[in-house]
């Protein structure tokens, strides 16, 4: 029997596939739909302290090889997601869900994380260090000094299981430097990767999204090689207590298989979920299981991280 069950920070999940933050997770209705699908769990839209409208529309556009977005962190505010999760964890005590969050400033991030710390939330928290789309706000994780400072401050009070969502890195030295920072902290996971920031997509003579003159985060087929490189680079460098969530370019079971081969313990689906709806979870799970069966693998442990090199 082939199984795609997995575990993150000691929490078990029936399936290793879930949504990527930002897709199908803004409202409780969307989260319920993912919950009732074949996905192993869900993550909420990244929450700020207060609700935000985000950037003007059009701000998300599906394109043949992926997607471009400049949503600008629209969300219903921390309490909306946290209160929902607090109710849900009593209704479904056997399942674990992810809460994504970030402040509009380091101070706000601490205010939010302290609220989560003081709440009864028993799930996993993902701190988004990689939103590419808020005008004037750089992606935190591209600034290693600030990232180190935030993490050192966070772990002075935050004792619940915490991971971080990372932007893609493109230089071996940056993998080394980032991993050296993350290895200093009791992180439970890193999630590689957020969208490839600030691409530009053109149709006829025009951009396709309104904010930032059309610049936006790229997802989908375009980004799989970059996503796999980041998953594997961190798998090679991080201490084994820090697990990897693989995100980026998952259209098929083969893509999920490759993320796991690179070291991912969980695989997230963004652009494909936006294009196809929650039916994508069942399709991709079946495709992944078929590949595993053909190769004689029964569980993810049989091939996780076992990427082969050419001597
Ligand atoms: O809301 C967004 O514009 C957004 C976020 Br917070 C993120 O982390 N990644 C992304 O592609 N868009």
UniProtKB/TrEMBL annotation:
It is an enzyme of class 1 (oxidoreductase). Keywords: Cytoplasm, Flavoprotein, FMN, Oxidoreductase, Pyrimidine biosynthesis. CDD domains: DHOD_1A_like. FMN binds at residues 45-46, 128, 165, 193, 220, 248-249, 270-271. Binds 1 FMN per subunit. The active site is at 131 (nucleophile). It catalyses: (S)-dihydroorotate + fumarate = orotate + succinate; (S)-dihydroorotate + A = orotate + AH2. Homodimer. This is Dihydroorotate dehydrogenase. It comes from Streptococcus peroris ATCC 700780.
């Amino acid at each position: 029997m082939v199984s795609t069950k997995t575990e993150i920070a000691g929490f078990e999940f029936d399936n290793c596939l879930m949504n990527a933050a930002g897709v199908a997770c803004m409202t409780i209705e969307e989260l319920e739909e993912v919950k009732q699908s074949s996905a192993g769990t869900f993550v909420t839209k990244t929450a700020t302290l207060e609700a935000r409208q985000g950037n003007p529309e059009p701000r998300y556009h599906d394109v043949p090889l992926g997607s471009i977005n400049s949503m600008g962190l629209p969300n219903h505010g921390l309490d909306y997601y946290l209160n929902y999760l607090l109710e849900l964890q009593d209704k479904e005590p056997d399942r674990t869900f992810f809460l994504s969050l970030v402040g509009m400033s380091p101070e706000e991030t601490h205010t939010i994380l302290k609220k989560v710390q003081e709440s009864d939330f028993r799930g996993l928290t993902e701190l988004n260090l990689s939103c590419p789309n808020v005008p004037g706000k750089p992606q935190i994780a591209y600034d290693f000094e600030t990232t180190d400072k935030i993490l050192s401050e966070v772990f002075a009070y935050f004792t619940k299981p915490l991971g971080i969502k990372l932007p893609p890195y493109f230089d071996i030295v940056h993998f080394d430097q980032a991993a050296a920072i993350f290895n200093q902290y009791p992180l439970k996971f890193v999630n590689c990767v957020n969208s490839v920031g600030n691409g530009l997509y053109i149709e006829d003579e025009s951009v396709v999204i309104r904010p930032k003159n059309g610049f936006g985060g790229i997802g989908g087929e375009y980004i799989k090689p970059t996503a796999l490189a980041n998953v594997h680079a961190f798998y090679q460098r991080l201490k084994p207590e820090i697990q990897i969530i693989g995100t980026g370019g998952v259209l098929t079971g083969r893509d999920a298989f490759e993320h796991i081969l690179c070291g991912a313990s969980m695989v997230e689906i963004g652009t494909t979920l936006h294009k196809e709806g929650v039916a994508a979870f069942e399709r991709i799970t079946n495709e992944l299981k078929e590949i595993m069966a053909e190769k004689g693998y029964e569980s993810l442990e049989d091939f996780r991280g076992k990427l082969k090199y050419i001597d």
